[in-house]
Design a protein that fits this description.
Layout lengths: L13 H17 L3 E3 L6 E3 H8 L7 E2 H8 L3 H13 L3 E5 L7 E5 L1 H9 L5 H8 L4 H26 L1
Antiparallel strand pairs: 1-2, 3-5, 4-5
Length: 160
Amino acid sequence: MGLNLARGTKVRDRHVRELLDAYPRIYFACHTRHVRDPQTGEDVSAHQASILDHLDEVDPMTMTDLAGHMGVTVATMSLAIDRLERKGYVRRRRDPQDGRRVLLRVTPAGVRLREAKSVLDPVRVEQVLAHLSPANREAALNGLQLLAHASERHMRSRRR
């Protein structure tokens, strides 16, 4: 209990190694590639949806800060924001205090899309689970529930 792993540290614990190996394979097979707006049926990419996760309805974020946070250039972010703005998910305004700065806010439609988003695609999850026997499916799900409960306990202990 209480593993303390620094970045770049070679993982010696077999259980940690196995989880670090398994999780990305599960995520890659099951993650949502697109997010569909429940009201309009409009699709946006998972990357575009992740941009919405970083924006607020009230407190604006600058284009520069968002681009830096997401590890892309301002020009690349501007293209992504153009698409989201055309679809009505983002509002872009010039900063009244400094006209060089672009302020971004998520719109109510963007909030709706963000709330409809799921990390995992239910159809892909169902397809993956179909490859398991009923007994192995139960064992896998029991293991995931144990990890989920341990994760919740860990998060609660860190808040204290």
